[in-house]
Design brief:
This protein is of the alpha/beta class. 44% of the residues lie in helices and 12% in strands. The protein contains 17 helices and eleven strands. Strands 1-2-6-5-4-3-7-8-9 form a nine-stranded mixed beta sheet, with helices on both faces. It has a two-stranded antiparallel sheet with strand order 10-11. It is elongated, with a radius of gyration of 24 Å.
């Protein structure tokens, strides 16, 4: 069956996105010089070689390879299902914020509602091997931001990313929702344990990827993913990050694109605080509460959020006071609190069951609130 005009246009966009050795920057150069993808593919190699190397010009002027045609057909079939969209650079629903970055994706695969890609958004990112306290901070900040009208953008990874998505969803149907930018094809959930979380995000937000269907998780895809995370948002909050961290790439890209960068400080003894402290030394804004962010960006509480009562603070506890906010081994807590071992262990178990502390993999205890 011949393609309709709209399908033919989308087919050309899909082919351009699949061309080997042509990234988004080169594709944008061709689009600016020659017009829409259909017009690019109507050119002879000699005309194309004025804008790209000769080998690429010959590649673009040749008929579409059979394997690429099969990929295009699969994408056209995928987008026919409800709740699925492919947004190109000329689509009116393409997120305007991405047009301000140096190399915007020429198309986006979206599962969910594309409207969630518009409006005020804040990225919340951090370590995959986050501490329980870091995950709770991410969840609490995201919940507050979503309840106050800020969409939460993150990368669906383990640790801070997942906690941020969950916190935004916890704000409920009145919250602003969340967007997950994926480093795989949109039909490949990574990590697999986040399949249910991804389903929830698609129901009250959007899953987004620029990568072709079927693309698996590969290290080189995640820095590209990070530029979209930063580009969609008005600012980036880094919750926990080691000194060498992909989250710092997201923060750098955000700063280069004129976005605000925020960081939560942590213990001077924690390796996962060093990235945040480095960002603060470089000019990122230190934040202690989610309101620090909304005040900086001009956001105010929604009436529904303002009407909700604040949770009362938990009563003081001698073991928590001894523990402080740095992870400690049992013997260090014993030295501080004056209890005998049996009494301390009993209280630690009770606090763990109450969700007020967590035991880390190395045996230390971490205060959560």
């Amino acid at each position: 069956m011949p393609l309709t005009q709209s399908s033919a246009e989308l087919s050309a966009w899909l082919r351009l996105s699949l061309e080997p050795n042509i990234g988004s920057a080169t594709a944008c150069t061709l689009l600016a010089a020659l017009g829409l993808p259909e017009q690019i593919y109507a050119q002879r190699a000699t005309a194309l070689s004025r804008h790209v190397p000769e080998a690429l010009a010959r590649q673009l002027a040749a008929p579409m390879p059979a394997d690429m045609a099969a990929q295009v057909e699969s994408a056209l079939e995928w987008v026919e299902a409800p709740g699925r969209h492919i947004l190109t650079l000329v689509d009116p629903t393409y997120p305007q914020s991405l047009l301000t970055i140096a190399d915007p994706p020429i198309l986006l695969y979206v599962a969910g509602d594309p409207a969630f890609l518009q409006g005020p958004s804040l990225a919340v990112v951090g370590a995959r091997n986050a501490t329980p306290g870091g995950q709770e901070n991410a969840r609490a900040f995201a919940r507050h931001l979503a309840a106050h009208g800020w969409r939460v953008v993150s990368g669906l990874a383990l640790g801070i990313d997942a906690a941020a998505h969950e916190g935004a969803l916890d704000a409920g149907p009145e919250g602003a929702g969340t967007v997950a930018v994926m480093g795989t094809g949109i039909d490949r959930i990574y990590p697999a344990r986040h399949r249910e979380l991804a389903h929830r995000i698609a129901g009250h937000g959007a899953l987004v990827s620029e990568l072709p269907l079927g693309t698996g998780a590969m290290p080189q895809h995640f820095p590209k993913r990070n530029r979209i995370v930063a580009g969609l948002a008005r600012g980036v909050l880094v919750v926990e990050a080691a000194k060498q961290s992909g989250s710092l790439i997201t923060a750098r890209l955000a700063g280069e694109s004129g976005r605000e960068v925020f960081a939560i400080p942590g213990s001077i003894h924690s390796p996962l605080s060093r990235g945040c402290h480095a960002l603060i030394r470089q000019g990122a804004k230190l934040v202690e509460t989610a309101r620090d962010i909304t005040d900086e960006l001009g956001g105010g509480p929604t009436p529904a959020a303002a009407a909700r009562p604040e949770a009362s603070a938990p009563p003081p506890h001698p073991v928590l006071d001894a523990l402080g906010f740095d992870p400690l081994h049992l013997d260090a807590i014993l030295a501080r609190c004056g209890l005998d071992t049996a009494a301390l262990q009993t209280q630690l178990v009770e606090l763990e069951l109450q969700g007020r502390i967590a035991r880390l993999d190395d045996g230390r205890y971490q205060r959560l609130n």
